[in-house]
C-alpha cells in the first residue's frame, strides 16, 4: 500500500489525465463541427469554437504538468513538484478543475504534514 505522498501523486495523475481527456474531446468536437456544412453558420458560432479551442490549448500543458508533477511526487523525488501540481490542478482551465480543487487541497494538506 502506497504512503500518503504516493496516494497524493496518484490523485494528481488522475486529475491530469482528466484534463488531457478534456483536450481530446474538445478538439474532436470542434474539428467535427468545422466541416459540418449546416446552414446558419455565424461569426459568433465560429468565435465560440475558437474560444473552446483556446481553452483546450491552455488545458493541454497544464494537464501534462499535473501528470509529471504527480509522477515525481509518487516516486518521492520532489515535494515541491507535488505542490506545483496541486496548484495547477485547481486552475479553472478545463472541466477537470471541478475534481482538481478538492484533490489539490487534499494534496497540499497531505504535503503539509511532517
Automatic annotation (TrEMBL):
Keyword field: Membrane, Transmembrane, Transmembrane helix
Residue ranges of the TM segments: 12-32, 52-73, 85-108
Name listed for the protein in its UniProt record: Uncharacterized protein
Species of provenance: Cryptosporangium phraense
Amino acid at each position: 500500500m502506497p504512503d500518503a505522498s504516493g496516494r497524493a501523486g496518484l490523485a494528481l495523475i488522475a486529475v491530469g489525465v482528466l484534463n488531457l481527456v478534456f483536450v481530446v474531446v474538445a478538439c474532436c468536437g470542434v474539428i467535427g463541427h468545422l466541416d459540418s456544412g449546416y446552414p446558419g453558420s455565424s461569426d459568433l458560432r465560429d468565435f465560440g469554437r475558437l474560444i473552446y479551442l483556446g481553452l483546450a490549448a491552455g488545458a493541454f500543458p497544464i494537464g501534462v504538468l499535473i501528470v509529471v508533477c504527480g509522477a515525481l511526487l509518487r516516486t518521492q523525488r520532489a515535494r515541491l513538484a507535488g505542490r506545483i501540481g496541486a496548484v495547477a490542478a485547481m486552475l479553472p482551465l478545463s472541466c477537470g478543475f471541478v475534481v482538481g480543487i478538492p484533490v489539490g487541497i487534499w494534496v497540499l494538506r497531505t504535503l503539509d504534514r511532517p
